Amino acid sequence: xxxxxxxxxxxxxxxxxxxxxxxxxxxxxxxxxxxxxxxxxxxxxxxxxxxxxxxxxxxxxxxxxxxxxxxxxxxxxxxxxxxxxxxxxxxxxxxxxxxxxxxxxxxxxxxxxxxxxxxxxxxxxxxxxxxxxxxxxxxxxxxxxxxxxxxxxxxxxxxxxxxxxxxxxxxxxxxxxxxxxxxxxxxxxxxxxxxxxxxxxxxxxxxxxxxxxxxxxxxxxxxxxxxxxxxxxxxxxxxxxxxxxxxxxxxxxxxxxxxxxxxxxxxxxxxxxxxxxxxxxxxxxxxxxxxxxxxxxxxxxxxxxxxxxxxxxxxxxxxxxxxxxxxxxxxxxxxxxxxxxxxxxxxxxxxxxxxxxxxxxxxxxxxxxxxxxxxxxxxxxxxxxxxxxxxxxxxxxxxxxxxxxxxxxxxxxxxxxxxxxxxxxxxxxxxxxxxxxxxxxxxxxxxxxxxx
Length: 452
Known about the structure:
452 residues, two-stranded antiparallel ribbon, 19 helices, 6% strand
C-alpha cells in the first residue's frame, strides 16, 4: 500500500496522469502483441460465424478441430481488394471527411491536457449525422444505391478496413516520431507500445483531427449507417417487411447513436479522447472493431431474426429507451456541471462538489470540480450500468436463436467498461491525489452500489 501511495504521489507531482491501470493483465508488450495478432482474425471469424453459422461459435470450433485453425481462417478470409467494397469505403471516408471539416459548427474548447494544451473542435457532429442518414435514405429511396450491398459485402469491407487500419496506424507511428502535432506526444520507449497505444494524444493531419475522424465520423457514423443497411437486407429477405425484432434492435441503437452525436462534444472530453493516445488500440478499434462487433447483433438479425410478440417488442423498446435516457441524463449532468463551473441545478438543487487541484507537466496548478450529486452520488461510473442494460435490450430480439453471436457485444461491453472504470479511477487518483480519496469516501461505489 505504501508503494502504491508513493507511485501516486510521484505521478501527481510530475503532472503525468494521462494513463491508468485497469483490471486486464499484460498491458506491456505481450498483451498488445497478442491483441494485434488475434483481433484482426477475430473480426473476420466473428463475421463468418454470424453470416454462415447462425452465430454459433461451437460450430466454428468443430470445423477448426477438423481442418485446423489457421487453415480455416485462411479459407474464410475475404478479399481485401474487392472493387465494390473499396468503392464504398472510399466514398464513405471522403464524404465524412468533407462533413467533418466543412459542415458548419461552433468551435468547442475541450479539457486541458496534461501538458497544458486545449484541443479545439468544430461542434458539427449532430448536423453531420443527420445529413449522413438523410443522404443514405434519399439515395436508397431513388434507387441510386442498394444499402443491402453493405450486408452482402461486409466480409470484404472488414478485410479491407483491417488492411487500411494497420497502414493508418503505421502512418501515425511515423508521424509521432517525425512531425507530432503538439507537446502531448512522445515515445513510450517501446516500439510495440508506441504502435499499440500511440505516440500522440491529439494528432491532426492536414487540419483534420484524427480521433474525431476515426472514433466519431468512421466508427460511430458507420454504426448508424451499417445497421440501417442491415435493416434494408432484412426487408429484402422478408418481402419488403421489416421484422419487429429487427425494428426494435435498430430503433434503440439509432436513439443511442443520436444521443452520442447530440452529446459529441461531451465525448471529446471523455477518457477515450483525453487520455488514450491515437494508436492501434483506439484507431484500429474504431475503424474495424466497432463496425465488426458493435453492429454484430444487427448483422445477425438481418437474416436470422426470430418472430417475437408485439408485447415483448414494446417491453424491450420501453426499457431500452429508459436506459438510454438514463445514460444520457447522467452524462449530461456532469457535462452541464463542468461547463457551468458548478453553477447549475441538478435534480432541482445546487449540486455538492469537491474543488480538486492538480498539476500539469509544466508545473502549473489548476482546479477541477468533482460532482457529488444527481446520478453521480450513486456511483463514480454510474453511467456504465444503463449503457450495458441498453445494449442487452437491443440484443434480446435474437432470443435464443444464436449461441454467443448476438450477445457478444454486451459481454464485451461489460468487460470493457469495468476495465475502463478501474483505469479511470487509477488515473484520477494519480491526478487528484487526496482530493480523489475524499471523493471516493463520499461516493464509495465504482459502478454498481453494494457490488463494485
